[in-house]
Write a structure and sequence with these properties.
By secondary structure, the protein is of the alpha+beta class. Helix content is 20%, strand content 36%. The chain folds into 3 domains: 37 residues, no CATH class; 140 residues, Sandwich (Immunoglobulin-like); 130 residues, Immunoglobulin-like (Sandwich). It contains 5 helices and 22 strands. A hairpin with a 2-residue loop joins strand 20 and strand 21. Helix 1 packs across helix 3.
Length: 375
């Protein structure tokens, strides 16, 4: 505060209390006629504040807010009965989901595709079109599908096979097919404006190639045109190449493909979300191969309860040495092959361990299934 301001304030205080003379009047007039008025207004404000505080004190109960509830209009602390009721309600939702598994839904994807044979060529003919797809009971979504399946039909061939893949486009936009992981001539790579023209709505396109020797393993086929939308909506499938001479570790009793996705249909395993996902079933003592394929846009660490997984291949290539884990991180575009020796009977939870992809207050959902080892 400046020296001049201090003088004005002191003078104003004196004007309120001191007797006034003609000399005082002239002196304060030179400073400003409002000064005594301000002093009077400040005094009135102090009086009003004191009256308000007295009214507030009179209205406050003697005991105060003893239970810290904030008064009658604020939420009160929950009683033990309230807590138990809420827990029972949440548990009921969780139990209902488990009891519904595996829930029936319309449509099944990833079905084995039997080719027709034309002069020794394995011919796979697919139509890409828009349809309704049920991901879990009562939940239907728009899907862009190959042959009305999400994932599309599962293709299995052998090294050295001659393959013809015919695509019919019934979508409302152009598309193309890329064979992810196969080392093909560039003309067959399926990338519009780099290796081919886009396949326009209503048009067809034929891919034909010989499956390379030494290129066995778990591969995929999917759209490579507006792919974030088209693959996310279901234009994807497994393309598995069997070796002519399998390694001993590849000889299994059950061979299961699990395609992960996290696009427009939510978190899905083979096109379905829990409780509509499909359990993997094996008998005690059997050897199980699981082929993980991530067609989504997020990582998914898949965790198996009760037994470890032995990792044998990545992206179709044998690992230098098999290694063990119970949680395997699968990034977008990756394929991982694992072996499970089913030596522990029971129903074992199998899920993505990014927990918001698998479980919430209403129970399990999305990327959850089970490995059932039967005695």
């Amino acid at each position: 505060m400046s020296h001049d301001t201090t003088n004005v304030t002191n003078a104003a205080a004196s004007a309120v209390t001191a007797p006034r003379s003609r000399r005082d009047f002239l002196r304060f007039s030179a400073l400003g006629l409002a000064v005594p008025v301000v002093g009077t207004a400040l005094a009135a404000c102090k009086e009003q504040s004191a009256q308000g505080a007295a009214r507030t004190a009179a209205a406050t109960p003697a005991h105060g807010d003893s239970n810290h509830s904030g008064g009658t209009t604020a939420p009160h602390p929950r009683t033990p009965a309230d807590i138990r009721k809420a827990a029972d309600e949440m548990d009921a939702h969780h139990e209902a989901g488990i009891k519904a598994f595996p829930a029936k839904t319309e449509g099944k994807g990833n079905l084995l595709f039997e080719p027709r044979i034309e002069n020794g060529v394995k011919v796979f003919e697919v139509t890409a079109e828009v349809m309704q797809w049920e991901t879990e009971p009562g939940k239907k979504v728009e899907a862009w599908a190959y042959n009305k399946q999400v994932p599309g039909p599962q293709i299995r061939v052998t090294e050295g096979d001659r393959v013809r893949f015919i695509l019919h486009n019934q979508l409302p936009e152009s598309t193309a097919v890329h064979f992810h992981g196969l080392e093909l001539p560039v003309e067959m790579d399926g990338v519009p404006f780099i290796t081919q023209p886009p396949v326009k709505p209503g048009e067809s396109y034929t891919y034909e190639f010989t499956v390379p020797e030494g290129n066995s393993g778990s591969h995929m086929y999917h759209s490579h045109h507006n792919a974030a939308r088209q693959v996310g909506n279901g234009l994807l499938g497994a393309f598995i190449v069997a070796p002519r001479n399998p390694r001993p570790i590849e000889k299994v009793d059950v061979d299961y493909v699990m395609v992960l996705n996290d696009g427009a249909h939510g978190y899905t395993l083979n096109g379905k979300g829990f409780p509509a996902t499909e359990p993997i079933v094996a008998k005690l003592g059997q050897k199980l191969r699981i082929r993980f394929m991530n067609e989504g846009m997020m990582i998914h660490p898949m965790h198996l309860h009760g037994m470890h997984m032995t990792v044998i291949d990545k992206d179709g290539w044998a690992q230098p040495a098999p290694w063990r884990c119970d949680t395997l991180n699968i990034a977008p575009g990756e394929r991982w092959d694992v072996i499970v020796n089913c030596n522990n009977p029971g129903t074992w939870a199998f899920h993505c361990h990014i927990l918001p992809h698998a479980e919430g207050p209403m129970g399990m959902f999305g990327m959850v299934t089970a490995l059932i080892v039967q005695k």
